[in-house]
Structures are given as structure tokens and as C-alpha cells.
Specification:
alpha/beta, eight-stranded mixed beta sheet, disordered N terminus
């Protein structure tokens, strides 16, 4: 902070100086995305991520300026703007994103790598037949090529202070992409060194794969190759984060599955964002619950669930759910959502974004701390569907978030045709424990047995009756009675314990 060098400033001068400093600090803050200084948490832990990546050129073609697009994105809660340009970083675009409180990611496309490699005259990759694998594909472990293509521009981006991450599209458009396993001179020699293997004479390129096969070394070769790739990208990430410690890497498609690039670029302090395209096309119920979320979370990655405008706005007219419903479900039950688009963002699109963001914000305001910081658990409760139908039982999705001695149960009826009635049981609670059970979204306290609001662990083991509308969710929060108000709350709701059918 600026410190005056003299103490003889007049009172008026001190006031003027204070105003100037306030304005300067406000201007500096405007250059950074919102939330960057408001919390000790990293920005990706402060809210569900609204990841916006698509064909932005359609906005310009329709006469919409990039500034207006950024302003609209801010209105619908955008967290990340990923560019669609294939050239250098558009720093003016990045400034506009920051102006409106949005993080800016530069996108890197692998299908242009062959053009870059050809200009560099980079060493060719060698496939298992001893040939070039097509296009001008460089060796995937030639450091000079990848330092110039991958590392150098990202170091420049990180130094600018305007670029918050790199989003990677490894889809091989037109068949152009990276080589697979490479058997060039350097790769083969590196394998021999790592395994401390000696060869009496040089193995020709077109015989190296067969040489490995005869010695049962094919899997070992591929493992060493992938390890070296992970090490190379980990070194790139380390050098970039020396400049910007919270620089984020995200990837689409190819990065859903285990691969050396993802593993190298990920750290617990700056997790890799897996942008999942598996829901581009699915059945008419749009099953967000069928995902790799638990697996990716265990590995420490963040999963951004994705779909696209064609399946959300008319391309799949059989869908039972609106686009805003899917975006809400995807965000709340994952680390965020993403909707790819290949057209101008129309009023209908913006409306859907806004509705989804309103619902996400409302849920974050009530239970966001649990969703973002809680420890997930799918074994804490048992949800028993009332009719006993196995088909309906599969339509109840539940998970619990544990935080600071409290428990938030998130229930879904994912059936788009039928409401559900169920009994929610808590078999892991101590029988003598005492609890207050609430609906945090509605600010209601659940009562039972003539209005009692304190539940024993044994009573919760026996279960509480609940009903859900078709394709709906319900939050149930358990807090120890000692830390909650034990007096009769003003707003209560009696559990669904009616007996409409004769026994």
C-alpha cells in the first residue's frame, strides 16, 4: 500500500489522497474476476462452475459485440469464458471477460499441431510399422516442439495476468491430431535406458515393435512412453504455475479417460477440469446421474457435465426435460455445467441460462457450503420406495454431504412420469442421539408423532416418510439437537405418515 513520505499533509489533502487511493484500488479490483479477493477459497470452490465454451463467432456474425456478449454472460452467472480462436491469445477479449467478472481460458486445438510441426520441421513420429503415421505428426515426446507449441504461449498468457487457464480440445478434426505410441530413435533409446536394456546392434525402425513383442515388452514400452509424457507435461505445468500458481488446465472429450497429459497437468492445488461431453446424446430422460463423477472426484479432478444446443433446443425433441432443468441438475450434482453451441445465442438460449442460474444461485445460497465443501457419501441413508417396485426404486437417487457434524441428504426422483413416496432411513445413527431435521430450502422443520421436532437416532433409523413430485429433488438436513434450537419452531411440516391404503 502507498505510504506518504511526509506527515505535514493537510486534512483536506489527506481526504483527497484517501479518495484517490480508494478509486485506484476499486479500478484494480475491476480488472480481476469477481470473487478473487472475497474468499480464502480458490475460485473454483466458491460456486458451481458455469463453463461457457462454444462457437462465439456466431455472435459477431449476428452483429452482437463481444462486450455485449460478456455482459450477457455475466447476467447468467458465467464463471469461465473459453475462447474459440485458434491463433494467439486475444488479450482484448480476456480484458472484457475480467471486466465482467469472468475467468478467461485460452483454447488449444490439437488438430492444428501438424501445421505448427511442419513449419518447425519437427522430428516425425514413427508408428509400429516404422512409418510416419500421417499428416506431419511430430514425435509426442519431442520437447522442443511442445515447448514452442504448448508451453511458450501459455507462459506468455500466464505472465499477462489476463488468462486464468488453458482449455484443450484434443479432438482429431479431419483426422489430424497427435501420434499414438512413438517408436522413433529417441523414444526407443529412452526406453532402453530406463529399463537398462542392452542391444547388440541397432534395431531398425520397422522391426522395433516386433522386437518388443518377442521379448514381451510391448506393455512395458507403452508404460514408459506414457510416464515420460506425464513427466513432460508436469514440468510444463510447474513452469507455468511458477508464474501464476492458480493457472487451471481443462480438457474436453479425450480427457475423460486416464491419459498422461491430464495426469501431468493436475495438482491438488490447481485441479484439472474434466469437461465431459458424454451427455451430447442420451435417452429422453437426460440421465445426468449416469456419470464418472465419483471416480473423477476420487482422483481429485473437477467434472463439468456437458451437453449441446442441438440436443437441448430442438435437435432431440423427445427429451422430457427442458434445457434449464438439465443445466441445473448437471451443475448441482457435479462441479458445474457446460452447453456447447454452434449457433447464435438466441433469446430462448439466454432465457434458459438465466433460469438455470437463478435456480443454482438459490440452492447455493441455502446449501452451497455442503455441496462445495461437504464429504460425499452414498451409504449414509437408505431410501425405500413405498410401493416396493424395483423399477421405481431405481428412480430414487440419493447422496449425503457431511460437514461439521451435520448431514445434508440430497434426494432425487428422476422419474419424469410419476411422483414418489418413500421412507428415508438412517441406519448409521446412534440410537440414543438426538436430531433436528429440516428442509433447508423451505426453512421448515420436520415434525413427527403429534408435532415433536426432536428425533432420536432410533426414530430416524425407523425412517421418516417423504413424498417427491415427478422429476424433482428434496434436501433434508440433520443437525444435532444440542446445536439446533430445541424449542418448538414456528414453521414445521409433518412427515408424510398417512395411511391411505388398508393394511
Amino acid at each position: 500500500m502507498f505510504t506518504p513520505q511526509h506527515n505535514n499533509l493537510t486534512v483536506v489533502g489527506q481526504i483527497v489522497l484517501a479518495v484517490i487511493l480508494t478509486l485506484l484500488l476499486a479500478a484494480a479490483g475491476a480488472a480481476q474476476p469477481s470473487g478473487s479477493e472475497s474468499s480464502s477459497k480458490p475460485w473454483w470452490k466458491q460456486e458451481k462452475i458455469r463453463f461457457f465454451w462454444g462457437q462465439w463467432q456466431h455472435q459477431g456474425n449476428a452483429g452482437v459485440s463481444m462486450e455485449e456478449t460478456m455482459a450477457n454472460l455475466a447476467q447468467v452467472g458465467a464463471t469461465v469464458f473459453a475462447s474459440h480462436t485458434r491463433g494467439p491469445v486475444d488479450f482484448e477479449q480476456a480484458r472484457l471477460a475480467h471486466k465482467y467478472g469472468i475467468r478467461y481460458f485460452k483454447t488449444l486445438y490439437v488438430h492444428i499441431l501438424h501445421e505448427f510441426a511442419a513449419e518447425m520441421k519437427a522430428p516425425h513420429a514413427v508408428d509400429e510399422r516404422g512409418e510416419w503415421p500421417g499428416w506431419y505428426v511430430p514425435c509426442p515426446l519431442n520437447r522442443l516442439t511442445y515447448e514452442q507449441w504448448f508451453l511458450k504461449p501459455m507462459l506468455e498468457a500466464a505472465r499477462s495476468g489476463l488468462v486464468d487457464g488453458m482449455h484443450m480440445d484434443w479432438e482429431e478434426y479431419g483426422g489430424a491430431g497427435e501420434a499414438k505410441i512413438c517408436y522413433c530413435d529417441e523414444c526407443f533409446a529412452a526406453f532402453l535406458r530406463r529399463k537398462d536394456l542392452q542391444v547388440e546392434e541397432e534395431v531398425p525402425k520397422d522391426q522395433r515393435y516386433q522386437w518388443l513383442q518377442k521379448r514381451d515388452l510391448v506393455d512395458d514400452y507403452e508404460q514408459v512412453f506414457q510416464e515420460r509424457r506425464t513427466e513432460m507435461f508436469a514440468d510444463f505445468a510447474r513452469r507455468i504455475r511458477q508464474v501464476k500458481p492458480d493457472f487451471i488446465f481443462s480438457g474436453y472429450g479425450y480427457f475423460m479417460l486416464d491419459n498422461p497429459i491430464r495426469n501431468g497437468l493436475h495438482t491438488p492445488q490447481a485441479p484439472f477440469f474434466v469437461v465431459d461431453d458424454r451427455h451430447y446424446s442420451e435417452d429422453h430422460t437426460r440421465p445426468w446421474w449416469e456419470s464418472y463423477k465419483a471416480h473423477l472426484q476420487k482422483l481429485g479432478f473437477l467434472r463439468i457435465a456437458g451437453s449441446w444446443d442441438n440436443s437441448s433446443f430442438g435437435g432431440q425433441p423427445e427429451s422430457d426435460n427442458s434445457a434449464s432443468q438439465w443445466m441445473y441438475d448437471a451443475a448441482i450434482n457435479n462441479d458445474g455445467y457446460w452447453l456447447w453451441f454452434e449457433q447464435e445465442l438466441t433469446p430462448d438460449t439466454w432465457r434458459s441460462f438465466w433460469i438455470a442460474n437463478r435456480r443454482i444461485r438459490a440452492t447455493e445460497a441455502k446449501v452451497g457450503q455442503f455441496l462445495l465443501d461437504g464429504k460425499q457419501d452414498i451409504h449414509f441413508v437408505t431410501a425405500v420406495e413405498w410401493s416396493g417396485s424395483p423399477e421405481l426404486d431405481r428412480k430414487i437417487i440419493q447422496r449425503t454431504y457431511h460437514l461439521d457434524g451435520e448431514h445434508l441428504v440430497h434426494l432425487h426422483n428422476v422419474d419424469t412420469d410419476r411422483p414418489m413416496r418413500l421412507r428415508l432411513r438412517f441406519p448409521r445413527l446412534r440410537a440414543e442421539s438426538r436430531w433436528v431435521v429440516t428442509d433447508p430450502m423451505a426453512d421448515l422443520t420436520y415434525a413427527h408423532d403429534g408435532g415433536k421436532v426432536i428425533w432420536t437416532g432410533q426414530e430416524l433409523r425407523d425412517g421418516m416418510g417423504l413424498s417427491l413430485e415427478k422429476r424433482s429433488e428434496l434436501f433434508v438436513k440433520l443437525a444435532p439437537a444440542e446445536s439446533a434450537l430445541p424449542s418448538q419452531p414456528a414453521a414445521t411440516i409433518v412427515c408424510d405418515e398417512t395411511r391411505p391404503m388398508p393394511s
